[in-house]
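Kindly review both lines to help learners:
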Amino acid sequence: MVHSYIDVFEKAGSPESLKPFIRFEQVWPVESLERHTEILKSFHDERTRYRKLDNMPREELDSWTLRRLQSLVKFSYEHISYYRRLYSNVGFEPGDLKSLRDFTLLPIIQKADLHEIYREVVNNPWVKINHKSRTSGSTGTPLSLINDTDRQKHWFVHRIQMFENMMQSPLQPEDWIYSIYYEPFLLTSILGDYPTFTVGLGASYEDLAEHIRTLKPKIVTGVGRHVLKVAELLPDAKELGILAFSTNSETSSPGIRRDLSLKLGVPILDEYSSEELGIIAWEERDGGYLVAEDTVHLELVHYQDDDMESVIGTDLWNFAMPRIRYAQNDYAIWKKSDPEYGLRRLDRILGRQDMMIISPTYGPIDPGKILEIFDPGFRRLGD
């Protein structure tokens, strides 16, 4: 039994005008019954677990995180010489990691370190069964990454959970997800349910809007500027049954998202993620960001004499090419850094470190404020 990408795209009634922009390549070589069944079980197990997370005592959440970190650090120390050298140089051994406080004493790594780690692990025998990806290089040299299968499955399932949180409603098996992105999701459906239509960048926004009107998805997600321009062409989004729009992959202005949300009557919320760390957090309707703590361990630290706190993340699921205490090169502010119950929140994402301006009079200026200043210019989304 095989479920192919082409089946889903045919089911979506793909217009001829969109077909040049549709990628039929599969992330897994075959969308087999086995793969779909694995995801289906994980989907239901994690969906039930996720709904309880925000009411769990922090002690339980932190204990789970510590166990994941202990396993990840021990594996990296024993199997990846780069990490063994890095930790040995500061006198650390895996048995020293007994608390989250101990974890903060480990060295922070940068993109240059990941280049070195990739060159080492790419030749490991277990890498052949995993997934390779590559960053765009928009902030420097492109970075090659390896993600293990468990991480990819978890990310796929967690993305659907994120959508349900944004929509404030569970997806039904027949509900479509519409994605405007560089590549397809891990699967285009789960045994035919929760179908996802993915179209690449470059298609006419008018064609996309008309196809969305035909398909009536519950959520439209994708690269920020493209989703915003399509949303502007859908004043009837609420009547179509769209429950949310989700932006990712590039910085978009909170002011623009808020204004367009009010105009449409449908929330437009931001996904904070990266190729290196996966889903880090996502915007809630009050403007704060819910941290994806079952996917990434997030720290905000004053790093390299910065006045603002830098985002340091650890991918909790990736053992093929671990990213442990990785400097994301973004700034953020906590909203709830130490709640008694439930998941932590960010007040806002301030933006990338290379966007910061240093004023001789006022010192460092929040990069997010700079973007807000230019909101009126960005409002001409159709230009």
In short: Residues 5-378 form a domain with the Rossmann fold fold (CATH 3.40.50.12780).
